[in-house]
Amino acid sequence: MTFSQKNIISIKDFSKKDIKYILRVAERMEPIARSKETSNLLYGKILGMLFYEPSTRTKLSFETGMKRLGGNVIGFTEAAGSSMTKGENLADTARMVGEYADSIVIRHEMEGAARYVSDLVDVPVINAGDGAGQHPTQTLLDLYTIKRIFGKIKNLNIALIGDLKYGRTVHSLAYALALFNVKMSFVSPKELKMPDEIVHDLNKIDVVARETENIHDVLDKVDVLYVTRIQKERFPDPEEYQKIKGAYLINSELLKGTDLIVMHPLPRVDEIAYDVDSTPNSKYFEQAFYGVPVRMALLKSII
Amino acid sequence: MTFSQKNIISIKDFSKKDIKYILRVAERMEPIARSKETSNLLYGKILGMLFYEPSTRTKLSFETGMKRLGGNVIGFTEAAGSSMTKGENLADTARMVGEYADSIVIRHEMEGAARYVSDLVDVPVINAGDGAGQHPTQTLLDLYTIKRIFGKIKNLNIALIGDLKYGRTVHSLAYALALFNVKMSFVSPKELKMPDEIVHDLNKIDVVARETENIHDVLDKVDVLYVTRIQKERFPDPEEYQKIKGAYLINSELLKGTDLIVMHPLPRVDEIAYDVDSTPNSKYFEQAFYGVPVRMALLKSII
Amino acid sequence: MTFSQKNIISIKDFSKKDIKYILRVAERMEPIARSKETSNLLYGKILGMLFYEPSTRTKLSFETGMKRLGGNVIGFTEAAGSSMTKGENLADTARMVGEYADSIVIRHEMEGAARYVSDLVDVPVINAGDGAGQHPTQTLLDLYTIKRIFGKIKNLNIALIGDLKYGRTVHSLAYALALFNVKMSFVSPKELKMPDEIVHDLNKIDVVARETENIHDVLDKVDVLYVTRIQKERFPDPEEYQKIKGAYLINSELLKGTDLIVMHPLPRVDEIAYDVDSTPNSKYFEQAFYGVPVRMALLKSII
Question: Who among A75, A87, A100 is closest to B267 (CB)?
């Protein structure tokens, strides 16, 4: 697709070529994101931010991206938002912001909210997470992180670990990685396995992921360990949860001797021990940074 | 008046010439508001925003206006504001912001708050709504909307409909329209009639508005239907409210065959049905947009 | 010290030469802070603001400073912050913002928070108040105010009055003033005397402050009356508090015939009567303004 004025709703709307294009543009944005170069590419432009749910990282990296490019933002976040938009529905609020801004980025708890809004307004809409639905800019920054660290995505060995059943992030990432000929492993407790539907979709394009409950099955083989949180609420039995939590905890002891990288969409709770932070394996803060050039690349391309 | 460093407190401070001047400047601002041109007219300038009450549209359009002109904003909105200004009164807060900013825009629940603040600070103050008092920038954008759509205001036939008793917006608008030789109608339930004092003021300058309870009396005559909300709280008897609500509901059925335009200061609750949105009569989102060039014109003129 | 990339944690890290340097730079920043000149010195730069406690003046003056210099800010304030950072600790939040911004300014209720954060991130950190700890930018703007009004700090007669026991502001200010050969007086109820440790530290460098409970002992001698609030919570007996409050109230009657200046870090509650505002003695709003050029000087120097 050509990106000018396009909506960014789902990673499934992106061809492999589209993804590669955005990652290439992101690379050109990096010196600006690192404050080594200045730019006025988006001078006078306004991004409207509708954050009906809190999301510090996503919000701040979009804001940083706009501002580093000379643009600016308007809008609201949940805490203020709840009272600010009292008595007005999503449609009217979005149409209003669509009158003011050059693009809208929306996070909403309702699946499909971003696509719904994109049908109402004349400016391009970016989905920053819609409940159990999509979060395409997270997937793009995950891919960019891998690309920047290994110089490629192709042929890498990548394990997704944690809650693979409910985790929106890993679903989108699995689809996107499938385009790049990677070797995938899915590591999760049996209660939180990757949904059959996704496994089946991947099989249809000849991608067969190894599935296991045991992290040690993949540890000496993978280049990337992509960790997600396992939520207590998924387990009726607290003891069962404690056992699972222990078995999936990533700490420096576990990583000793490996040269894999650890990624995480953040925020973490306690699935990655703090002693990992100072190891060379830890890449999740670098990954958070890469949200800026990737979102800059999208903003530059659609506005 | 010359606008440099002037306070914008009440539409009554504006002569017809003043209004026409602002509308003309707003027209020049429109390409910038539409992001077709860029400007650095207010580069380095700061607008201080004191929103003690929520007001998404007013706040975001002021913000958009400043940022499109290369300026920026500081300040707070109610949700954050309540805790941020804990223990400090309006006077001290306003004086502080007056030390930092080039102009202050204030919304406050207390009538007279904007004028009170304008006496305390050295920078020009814009009233963005003071309780039952004034909201002059709303009136100016209403006039601008009419001017842009019809090419003129003079000689148009304009009906104000809904709560004409408590509605600050329609009071200010009636005074301003009276300067432009329009034919006015006031359509409201008898409990919510335009106050005698205003009717009397208009009569003194030979403006006689038609008053009626029945929307059908005006429907085939008017160019503009300016709708405002009727609040449930005004009616002790809920059944009475339901009857009134039904009689004043604007829907596409009612508008069929007319070419009048429907305006509304927004947010709406249920006084305009959603099926009106896609009719050519609907102009309330366009009206919301015009808040940007009109507020740009004011900011440019006073700062 | 050379300031580039330095953390600003405590006024004790500043030599007299450092302070004089910042005050000199602040003077050059003043025309920009007053909006008489524009600057793009920090164009494209981002200040990350982590305000875990509300602090309107400090926050807005940092924001104003960045924006007047062409830069911008990201971050959050307490009200929004509490929900935005739900489930994420200070360390992870700070590291994230450190990835996005060129510098971080933090206010936190925990003493030592700013230094803790400065050890975690790669960008310079500014302490905007850490509980009972330090608030160095307040001290610098206090010094700048005195310098601007008297043309010098040396040899002035300066009284600190109010709660000298718990007041972080007066502790830092006393240390800084000691470098400038001023004559200091400490005026407080005996329950709220300057801590022995600080008096002792000052004595070691041959600074002997006069200590008294009676404001009238200093009134005809001082050039500066630096007032701080006496909090009700410090007194178990409400009657005792009322008596103290009355004895330390600054009003226009008290100041009659003097030409001292009254300073206050603000917000005030009722320790300075409103009738002082219109006297020539009152300098606390001007002092609030000076927060802008002083913070600009720091931002310019470290980023």
Answer: A87
What pLDDT is attached to residue C133? Answer: 85
Name the catalytic one among C2, C17, C36, C86.
C86
Minimum CA–CA partner of C102 in chain A: A35
Q: Are the Cβ atoms of A99 and B54 closer than 8 angstroms?
A: no
- B83–C78 C-beta distance less than 8 A: yes
Residue A7 CA to its chain's centroid (Å) = 17
pLDDT of residue B81: 42
Task: Please confirm, yes or no, whether A145 is among the known catalytic residues.
Answer: no
Which residues of chain A are within 8 Å of residue B38 when distances are taken between CB atoms? 43-44
A216 is written with which tokens?
Answer: 């040690």
Give the three-state DSSP class for B186: strand
Q: Which of residues 246-275 of A touch C (CB under 8 A)?
A: 266-269, 274
Model pLDDT, residue B86: 55
pLDDT at A76: 82
Nearest partner of C57 among B73, B124, A72, B94, judged by Cα:
B94
In this predicted structure, what is the pLDDT of residue A80? 46
Q: Are A40 and A70 in contact (CB under 8 A)?
A: yes
Q: C151: which DSSP letter?
A: S
Tell me what pLDDT residue A26 has. 98
Rounded Cα distance, B123 and C44, in Å:
28
Using alpha carbons, select from C263, C285, C55 the residue that is nearest to residue B96: C285
Nearest beta carbon to residue A45 from set B35, B54, B289? B35
Beta carbons of A68 and C44 less than 8 Å apart: yes
Q: How big is the B-C interface in CB pairs under 8 Å?
A: 70
Among B43, B91, B96, the residue with its CB nearest the CB of C38 is: B43
The SS3 call for residue B16 is: helix
Q: With an 8 Å Cβ cutoff, are B56 and A80 in contact?
A: no
Question: Are B264 and B287 a contacting pair, CB within 8 Å?
Answer: yes
pLDDT band at A246 (very low <50, low <70, confident <90, very high): confident
- C298/C5 Cα distance (integer angstroms): 11
- The tens digit of pLDDT for each residue in C217-251 reads 999 999 999 999 988 888 888 898 888 888 899 99
pLDDT higher than threshold 60 for residue C211: yes
Mean pLDDT is lowest, of A139-143, A197-201, A229-233, B198-202, for: A229-233
Q: CB pairs below 8 Å between A and C: how many?
A: 71
Contact A56 C92 (CB under 8 A): no
Cα–Cα distance measured from residue B159 to residue B186, given in angstroms and rounded to the nearest whole number: 6
Query: Mean pLDDT, chain B, as a whole number?
Result: 93
pLDDT score recorded for residue B83: 45
Who contacts B14 (Cβ-Cβ below 8 Å, separation ≥6)?
B1, B22, B136, B140, B176
Helix (H) or strand (E) holding C292: helix C284-302
Mean pLDDT computed over C262-284: 96
Assess whether B86 carries a catalytic annotation: yes
Q: List the domains of chain A with CATH numbers.
A: 11-134+291-302 (3.40.50.1370), 137-288 (3.40.50.1370)
Of A36-40, A135-139, B201-205, C1-5, the one with minimum mean pLDDT is C1-5
Residue-level pLDDT at A77: 76
| Residue of C41, C82, C100 to mutate when probing chain A, most A C-beta within 10 A | C100
Q: What is the pLDDT of residue C75?
A: 92
- C-beta pairs of C10-16 under 8 Å, 24+ apart in sequence: C10/C127, C10/C133, C10/C134, C10/C136, C10/C172, C11/C134, C11/C136, C11/C139, C11/C140, C11/C172, C11/C175, C11/C176, C12/C134, C12/C175, C13/C136, C14/C136, C14/C176, C16/C179, C16/C180
For C161-212, the DSSP string reads ES-TTT-HHHHHHHHHHHTTT-EEEEE--GGGPPPHHHHHHHHHTT---EEE
- A288:C83 CB<8 A: no
